[in-house]
Amino acid sequence: MMLLGRGLDARDNQTRQMQDAVSNVEKHFGELCQIFAGYVRKTARLRDKADLLVNEIYAYAATETPNLKVGLKNFADEFSRLQDYRQAEVDRLEAKVVEPLKCYGTIVKLKRDDLRATLTAKSREAKQLSQLEKTRQRNPSDLHVIAENELHRASLDATRTTRHLEETIDNFEKQKIRDIKNIFSEFITIEMLFHGKALEIYTAAYQNIQNIDENEDLEISRRMLRKDEEEDEEEDEDDEEDDEEDEFDATKEAFTRFR
Amino acid sequence: MMLLGRGLDARDNQTRQMQDAVSNVEKHFGELCQIFAGYVRKTARLRDKADLLVNEIYAYAATETPNLKVGLKNFADEFSRLQDYRQAEVDRLEAKVVEPLKCYGTIVKLKRDDLRATLTAKSREAKQLSQLEKTRQRNPSDLHVIAENELHRASLDATRTTRHLEETIDNFEKQKIRDIKNIFSEFITIEMLFHGKALEIYTAAYQNIQNIDENEDLEISRRMLRKDEEEDEEEDEDDEEDDEEDEFDATKEAFTRFR
């Protein structure tokens, strides 16, 4: 009887241990889910800033001399393309990392229910087994045969339930390790895809910047200043009243000539 | 005289055009500076989230079976190393992109002062030239020689100032294009350095996750559960009063066994 009592204690310890293990996974997967979601959000914020940068570079390029204009515009095109890949990174991380971690909450809950049901059955059977043992000891004669049969059946049930419990625990552990490997592998793959694209795109973007011919642009802006002076000097028959309009035109021209 | 008058107008147009160009650069470099600073800030926030992730992975790994524990810990080590490179990215972008753009405000201000001084001189000289021309026309006889000399000197001054103005504009344009090429090249180089490191580190990190031997861990957790049961069944001489302490120990053990 002492032995059976200790057996029940051992099962209680196992139960607690398993429930602690499930709670532990529930807790840490929850934390991981939240932090990964934060990581994805910050990546999306970085993309937002990069989009602003793209727009500002386009706006500035439009006011510049031809070579600088083209160089900056091409850089902005490439940088904008990279932000599309960053958006894909965000979407993929959401779908392949955050979502599966979120789903884990439900999986863990179901596993815990399954585990609890099995443990309840196991405990009930163990008590039944202990009860029959007592009955047999108290009535060694008349109830012997019936008790012996019941004891045998109860023992078989307890063994089957123990095996089911072990399978439940096993499946939980197996799925957990597989899911972790899966989620982290997805994370790494998605990040690598983005970093690879970034290297490829920046390589092209670097050439766009390096190819800006500063001497040609300087020559162009020199010619423009001189041409402006010559043009104005040729128009010497204009009335003084036109001056104000001229001033407006010149200002407008300065802003629009490189667009 | 009409020709000189138009010349002055032309110069005024040039002046406005140049001042517009300087203001334009001032404006856009200011905007670029702010947005790049935002981009760097968001990158730093992403690193913060990644740091949280590193800590949480360490915390979770400490509660797991040996293979999963080592795999996750190694992944966290690599991922943490990547965050050091992200910090380097942040520091470099701050020093080589944001700071130079910030300094540009001062450079543009100095250039504008230089330009204004030159333009003032040029305008003053042009008026002097026009004045002398008038004087010569009004007094063609007695003041002829003096006026002619003064006219010649004033004309030389005006030419010299024009050349200085052209040089000032030229230097401004030259420095601007060089600085843009420099700043954007630095940006791309810094980003590429980070993305390259990321690819390298994730490649190693991927192996850490793939190498997690799930079967060995499952075997270990099975052995632990069985050993627990056997141990408890052997300790059958313990008093019932010890039960409460046993429960506490079992809970503690469940939390600490994989650490």
How would you portray this structure in words?
By secondary structure, chain A is an all-alpha fold. The first copy, chain A, is 91% helix and 0% strand. Chain A has helices at residues 2-61, 66-138, 144-210, 214-234, 243-256. The longest helix of chain A has 73 residues, at 66-138. Chain A is rod-shaped, with a radius of gyration of 39 Å. In chain A, 30% of the residues are buried. Chains A and B meet through α1, α2, α3, α4 and α5 of A and α1, α2, α3, α4 and α5 of B.
Write the layout of secondary structure elements.
Two copies of one chain form a homodimer.
Chain A: H1 2-61, H2 66-138, H3 144-210, H4 214-234, H5 243-256
Write a brief structural summary.
2 copies of one chain form a homodimer. Chain A is mostly helical.
> N- to C-terminal separation of chain A?
96 Å
Biggest interface: chains and residue counts?
A: A-B, 89 and 89 residues
Return the structural class of chain A.
mainly alpha
Query: Roughly how much helix do the residues of chain A carry, as a percent range?
Result: over 70%
Quote the average pLDDT of chain A: 81
Shape of chain A: rod-shaped
The string of secondary-structure elements of chain A, in order, is: HHHHH
Number of helices of chain A: 5
